[in-house]
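Hi there,

I know you've been waiting on this one. I reran it after we fixed the sequence typo, so this is the corrected version. Both the input and the resulting structure follow.
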Amino acid sequence: MEALEYLAETRDGVLAAVEGLSEAQWRFKPAPDRWSVLEIVEHLAIVGSRVTKILERLGQAPVAPVDRDPTPIDALLKDALDRSRKFHAPSIVCPTGRLNATEVVEQFLSSHASVGDKLTMGPALRRNLVSHLVYGPLDGYEWILMYGAHNARHTLQIREVLRIVVAPIDPEKNRRENQ
């Protein structure tokens, strides 16, 4: 599968997971220390913006050694989807809670498109390495694929939250239905 197709697939997965959610479903937190769907999608938008900035500075990053064996990306992508491994996001990519559902989806789509646009960067995309917090040195192409995997991982998280919530009680909707 090509990178652009993978990004489109993972973007569409996020959008399908959140389609038609009520305000209560967007904001439901399964536990005080867990994120709501709204916070998850905001996190994805923030990460997309951060990855775009990393890719924009890629040409200034160290050049990979000539004998570097490219990261076995299939194994990394599979590992990224393993929800049994939990990670704590650095504060710089944590949601702010200041946006509504429409705004976070717009920001997600914008940052996602920006990451995809970087696939046209040329030789620096594979030549230079930037260290990833979890996976170590990655070239730009690997960063883009891992960004897609990150979206897919959080799509799984959104679906987990929605399985818990099933249909949270929306007081306003219940009031209208019971009149």
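Quick highlight: The first strand starts at residue 129 and ends at 132.

Best,
R. S.
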